[in-house]
Specification:
alpha+beta, Aminopeptidase, 2 domains, seven-stranded mixed β-sheet, GNAT family N-acetyltransferase, EC 2.3.1.-, transferase
Amino acid sequence: MMIEIRLGNNEANKKAIIKNLIANNAQKSPWLKQHGSSLTEHDFFIFADQQLISGAVGVSQYNWYFLELLQINEAYQKQGLGRKLLLAIENFATAQNLTGIRMETWNFQARGFYEKLGYQVCGEIKDCPPGTVTYTLQKRLISIEN
């Protein structure tokens, strides 16, 4: 048998790998076997006078909300909009009975903001991108028994 590794972008191969991984994970995780691993987009937008000024983009998957990005236009910062937006996300996640919220932020972004709102750093990667620290934060909203 000759085994080789190929670099490439092949959608059919990618789908096959994902399908195999999902099936393998479901065999080993009772939660995944029962609930699956599908994801649903849930985005939040802030408008002022019908104009989009800020928002948050994320997905729910594995009973968590993954906050992918949160952006407050500079002209509207320091007015409590970020806090209100995050509270809306937390209220949504709580209403959906999600376990918690997780996100990443860089060292020059909003780590302190998230920590003031109860988020805890649970991971750190240095030099991603180079010269930057990426922090992973989480806030558990409910407990789940194993």
